[in-house]
Amino acid sequence: MDDVLTLARLQFALTAIAHYLFVSLTLGLVTFLVVMQTRWAITGKDKHRAQTRFWGQLYLINYALGIGTGIVMEFQFGLNWSGLTHAAGNVFGAPLAVETLVAFFAESTLLGIWIFGWDRLGRTAHTVLIWLVALTAYASVFFVMAANGFLQNPARTRTKDGEMVPIDAATLFQNTNASSATVHVLTSALTTGAFFVVAVSAWHLRKRTAHTEFFWSSMKLALPVAAVMAMITGVMGASLFQVVAQDTPTKFGPGNKDAEAQAKEFTEKFGPDNYFPPDYVKTAESFMISSWGVMMVLTLLATLFLIKRNLIRRRILLWLLSAAVVLPYLASTAGWIFREAGRQPWAVYGVLKTEEAVTPGLTLGGAITSLLVFGVLVAALTLVDWALLIRFARKGPDGTQLGAAPPAPDEKPADVPQLTY
Predict the structure, then answer these.
(1) In a domain, 319, yes or no
(2) Does residue 409 form part of some domain?
(3) What is the C-alpha separation between 127 and 9, in angstroms, rounded?
């Protein structure tokens, strides 16, 4: 059973982390698209339209492939974690269902109209669409974190016939663990999007490609945002430690007074067990904090060189800005490890243990097969995503197909005979 549980946890960890890598970039880029297209709608300048098309195409690549990882992740609630859905599905299932409606129906529909609405809708109507896409994306995060916040802090619920049910409809939306984490996720995603725009722009500026002015404009927009959002994310992360100390104190491990007091209560109520998280959770916490520190220092330094275009002449700094694209991903991954693995041994903190949440009857062979199939699928989607992003990012605006004007219909040659009926 221990091996099955370990494999099920590993599978969910890999798919959840991979999915969030897509989500963070999608949320960050769509915010920049809102700004770029709004500037185009107001000014009508072609350079703003070109920016929207180029960064929008990269956003669409990431969005389309990210949907696949999201579907894979949610499949696991039925495959490997039916014990969790049986015990607590009445509570956290509702926000996940709403998120599916918002993300896969409303957001995708609006995005489809936006994609095919170029040169068919007016600038204002087309811009309103990208605003709505961004708002539905933000709403999607809220509903997901409402479900996740319940797993961290199952407040305002009761047990009926062995199943958890909410005391009232507003239970999930009054959870401070969820609301504070939602803001942190959004600022983290904006940081990721800003670092991505900065990294691609820095590459073109360092290579002296033919689109220096295009990417200099993108750099001036994204670099200050990266610096500010990195600081805000760091501040939000620090404030979240107070929420963690209140809701899930055992995450801080042995040696912490509140954590040891909580572990003692669990022992008295549920019997002896290791109620502290594994050692790598502390390592993830330290790595998360140090990564955000590096991001803040690097972006603040680089922002100073925006004055008089000095940054263009600092090739080493441009190289560092391109390489730093991985930092938000690494920091976010470490943050999720701290948040989720730090909750162990609980699936629902203080209520349902992880070993009770796994699907009854799940065999070792089934767990291994599931891990391999879904692991390979998620890895393939991730590799294809980054391969396409790198390919079209290097091409620059000349390789943009999104919003391209349709070719004029070919004229029929004069010697082609006309058929009559």
Answers:
(1) yes
(2) no
(3) 42
Q: For residue 311, which of 191, 211, 195, 201 has the smallest C-alpha distance?
A: 201
CA-closest candidate to residue 156, choices 138, 134, 178, 135: 178
Highest mean pLDDT out of 66-70, 96-100, 303-307: 303-307
Domain containing 196: what range? Answer: 188-354
Q: Is residue 278 part of a domain?
A: yes
The one-letter amino acid code at 149 reads G
Lowest mean pLDDT among 66-70, 153-157, 264-268: 153-157
Q: Give the pLDDT score at 408.
A: 56
Number of domains in the chain: 1
Assigned domain for 209 exists: yes
Distance CA 284, CA 295 (A): 16
With a CB cutoff of 8 Å and minimum separation 6, the contacts of 40 are 48, 49, 51, 52, 123, 127
Any idea of the CA torsion for 386, 390, 392, 396, to the nearest 10 degrees? 150
The distance from CA 190 to its chain's CA centroid, rounded to whole angstroms, is 10
Give the global pTM: 0.91
The structure tokens listed for 165 are: 């049910």
Packing angle between helix 279-304 and helix 326-340, nearest 10 degrees? Answer: 150
Could you say which DSSP state residue 106 is in? I
